[in-house]
Amino acid sequence: MHVAALGLYDFRSYESLDIELGTGANAFIGPNGQGKTNIVEAVDYLANLSSHRVSSEAPLVRAGTERAVVRAAVVRDERTALLEVEINPGKSNRARVNRSPLPKARELFGLLRTVLFSPEDLALVKGDPSDRRRFLDALMTTRSPRLAGVRADYDRVLRQRNTLLKTIGAARRTGNTAAALVTLDAWDEQLSRAGGELLAARLELLDALRPHIAEAYGQVAADADPERVDVTCDYKSSFELPESRSRETLVDGLADELAKRRDDEIERGISLVGPHRDDISLMLGTLPAKGYASHGESWSFALACKLAAYHLLRDEGDDPILILDDVFAELDRGRRDRLASLVAEAEQVMITAAVPDDVPAVLLGRRFEVRDGDVVHV
Questions:
Q1: What is the CATH number of the domain that holds 80?
Q2: Which tens digit of pLDDT belongs to each residue from 203-229?
Q3: Residues 6+ apart with CB under 8 A from 77
Q4: In a domain, 251, yes or no
């Protein structure tokens, strides 16, 4: 899989940009603040319908305009499809395939696969549980696009349920909660069903990722202390998981825990149990990586997670587009060269760097200079 052509219209700093890309390495070189990351962000947005830099969509639209368009010619199994998303902040986005509208933008999921690594990904190790959940869920929907709908359903039910919990808490002062509790039963059932399915998918995904993460860390940090290259990743659930990890038992287990915690949830006015409260425990040797790993170790661990995602998707049949956004400048020469050797054979790699010397020679490939909003193939 690779992007043969990319068009950006009122996206970020670009009023209009059309470029042709090649297989292998595509390096975007130029000083900071010139728009390099905007290009690779657009490719990743088209794949995941979210930005790795901002949580809202308004910054993606060029100042003074109302919408942005990202369009790409994607080659997969020697067939080309034209994918397009129209970004409308505050409204529903629109998506098209080969100029034909899709009922929902999320139907784009799976048609373009990317794995992006950027400085923001240090949050995988150093950040909050939400950063690690986001990593799992994005990869989960890439592997199985239908789970995007399950995630959307879960988020919707969670919002409604939290509102109801606050209402019941306030109503307890008057003693008139019977009708609301019946409604809460219905929301509990829906939250358990969607949450159990998400939980089953996350657990299966982490099981599949675990050996890839360990192998990738050993490759990237080959020169590290042997006692500090043993990395492990375990799922931390908001309730004790049953021995059987089937979808059905997880749905039942979540429903039972919601029943046990109901009084606490009503008192606090918030849902205390479910996938939205979970985390991944990342261990470096016998110590948690968060708080104990050095800056270099944290970088290596985060990079190993992303390389693991890349190898997992590739092993399952698709060679995803690998995006390395301003990564090499943060690595010493040894780790820089090892990373380059690990990804050099990818069908397509997109790289951003401030200076050419930051990019190992094996990855220079097709090169673009980015300066003052101009992107020139050199």
A1: 3.40.50.300
A2: 999 999 999 999 999 888 776 666 666
A3: none
A4: no
Is 352 inside any structural domain?
Answer: yes
> Which residue range(s) make up the domain with 369?
1-113+318-378
Q: What is the pTM of this model?
A: 0.90
Give the C-alpha separation, 76 to 298, whole Å.
34
Contact predicate 253/242, CB 8 Å: yes
Number of domains present in the structure of the chain: 1
Name the nearest CA neighbour of 1 among 80, 85, 69. 80
Residues facing 82 on adjacent strands:
73
Residue 190 lies in a domain: no
User: pLDDT, tens digit, for every residue of 224-269?
Assistant: 666 666 889 999 999 999 888 899 999 999 999 999 999 999 999 9
CB distance 321 to 1 below 8 Å: yes
